[in-house]
Amino acid sequence: MDTEKAEIKTVQKITIQELASFCARLGFFYPSGRIYGGLSGFYDYGPLGAELRREILNDWWWYFVERRDDILGIHGSIITHPQTWVASGHVDSFIDFIVTCKRCGAEYRADHLLEDMGIAVPELTLETLSKLIEDYGVRCPKCRGELGNPTPFNLMFTTYVGPKKTAASLAYLRPETAQLIFTNFRNIIMTMGVKLPFGIAQYGKAFRNEISPRGFLFRLREFEQMEIEYFVNPEKLDDCSFYDEVKGMEINLLSAEMQEKGEKEGRWITIEEAVDKGLIGYKWHAYWIAESLRWLRKIGINYRKLRVREHVKTELAHYAVQTFDVEFLFPQAGWKEIEGISNRSDYDLKKHQEYSGAEMYIYDDGKKVIPYVIEPSFGLERIILAVLFSAYNEVKGRKVLSLHPKIAPIKVGVFPLVSKSGFIEKAKKIYDMLKEDFKVIYEAKDSIGRRYARADERGVPLCITIDGQTLNDDTVTIRFRDTREQIRVHISDLKEKIRAIFREWSNKNPQWCLHDK
Ligand code: GAP
User: Fold this and answer.
1) Of all protein residues, whose CA lies closest to atom 19 belonging to ligand 1?
2) Which string of DSSP letters, residue by residue, matches 158-175?
3) Is residue 339 in contact with ligand 1, taking CB distance under 6 Å?
4) pLDDT tens for residues 149-176?
5) What is the pTM of this model?
């Protein structure tokens, strides 16, 4: 098939609200507790969403853990020893600032309230936020009432372990998966025979009691993170054996220096240029930026809508030497973070060593070393949003979700052309044959045109149709979602042909998703 034609040229924008309704109608995501009016910041995955989630997580695990020799996976608990969060600094400083209207009691996250009014917030401190609210005379957007002073609010959800609700039984739902990797560092060293450099990865739920959840799946109170902590000898941060693989890759970079000069747009430069100019501090950090982007592009995110933005000094977390956000260009909201890639230094391991007394070193070149860590931290739901915005197209009134077959929730549709005996039996036989190997749906209701349209919306890459000719010569048509082209294949070759099409899809120009120029 002509791969060029497989790309859809006409692209229309969809707003985040429209995407949310589209996803609910098709069974991707529903507001959690919808029958009771919903619970802000929580979404449930419907049948298509649950498959999409599983496919993305599986691909992430395969790409970053299974196929590599230097990364091991773990699966940590959601509630862990509370000292974890004292040592990491979350108990003291995982805060946002809340402002409350003195008249109607409405509560706002102070920096969001200011940003929504077009007021730039240079840093998240009590003094800066209070001053901006006063200087601009900001009032409650709902009732115009006077606002109280911003107050710090810790984002961790709390619970109690055991029957007694006392200070001693207080515990936290993890606000990031990363700390479970640090607290398991010693277990891995003692049991797995690892050598530097190496990584530990995990995915799983994280919980943050966000003051103002919003943007559909963008800011949730319960979400999923996919995180890697990659441990490197601090003296060997430029000693990256994979660097040559990625140094020629072009990225859209907005450095801290560029932002300080007032530049708003990134520049396309190679990884090598970025390292040579000192914009990315170390080669290992550069490698993990590139490797993250390669995966995001591979699962179908439009590469032209990905930007790497460095944190300016005032946003840099206390533990970080240098941090970059991978941002996606969202409709309306603009560039927003979907992944963070931080050089966290040896901060976390040293803190856990200090608080637990457990030694956190590893031998490298015969010397004890507390390694530095580069942390690619992906948020699943934001990645799903970027995938959906990249895949959603409207072509002459026809809605098409051009998901890569690798992550599409349904891979193949099987349809008898007409709902008549002969056609139905044959179609069901093919359906039974294919479902051993692929996630397949069978549908006989409605006209074939409507069934194709439904499949296109749900992102089904291929549809198999059983028509009059099938009954004579055992051939069927394969219809391609993105081009509507059809080819004829003998039933005996069908499975192999589908596999070959999916292989070709993955092997072709990795920038297949760049149709949105
Ligand atoms: N361990 C580092 C860490 O947690 P982060 O920037 O706070 O860093 C990493 O979070 C990623 O988790 C973000 O890039 C984002 O994709 C996702 N994330 C964070 N807060 C979120 C929220 N409230 N809702 C949905 N995703 C969120």
Assistant:
1) 379
2) EEESSS--SGGGEEEB-S
3) yes
4) 999 999 999 999 999 999 999 999 999 9
5) 0.94
